[in-house]
Sequence to fold (288 residues):
Amino acid sequence: MGLSKNFGSLQALKDLTLNVDTPQCIGILGPNGAGKTTLLKIITNILKPSEGKILVNGINVNQNPTKALEKIGALVEQPEFYPYLTGRDTMKFVARIKGMSVSESSDEIEKLGRITGITGYLDRKTGEYSRGMKQRLGLAVSMIGDPEIIILDEPTFGLDPRGMKEMRDILIALKEEKRRIILFSTHLISEAREVCDRVIIVDKGEIKFNEEISGMRGNKMRIRGDFNHVAKITGAKEITSKGNEITVEMNPGATRNSILRELMESGVEIDSVEGMDRMEEVYLSLVQ
Fold:
């Protein structure tokens, strides 16, 4: 609430206020240097705010961090672990800190290993882990104790395309349980669109936009194919073309399927179809 953070003459956050009170997945979207990581570090008490405060279930993080953060799991920046410990040993250590018994922690480790896809790597030393496997282990560690809030700082950063997709699939599965708040930062519009219920755009330390994804659904789609002889499409309000690609703005009541069916019946060979929303347009208009 009213968060500001200064690093000397640089103001990283400027009077930023954010309220979250229901289970959902929220993406903090912004360019590098926007203040995303600084915000997450303040929420998790890694950094202290210059002004303002963070309340978790009404408890001030600065005044009582142990109590405030007991229901929070976090993965902030690139995770690193003791390289001589196995993934299982690392998770046992964290579970013990959180007060879990040996039997409870054993069951928890197996469950989280399955969820994050690291079961086959739990008994390997973390020094042998790839970057993607460290990200998975970091996510598993953040979920020990079934926290009400999970905070993730660019969880797909540095992963290859397969690793990015697998991490997103894990996040989507967690979101669909509708049991917890997931707050994660990203600089990828496509990632926010795919994973989140709500998007917050941050730039230069300020919240520029805060809206549910469902409110950003558009009535446009981008179609790639052979459009040499397409002049008109029933149900299309406007058609713009560029090479082998057209963008169709649909009339109210028109559907994507009806337009695609009409194109195919007219002999058009369609290569790909991409739904469009307002997110990219909004982002580019707000982020300088």
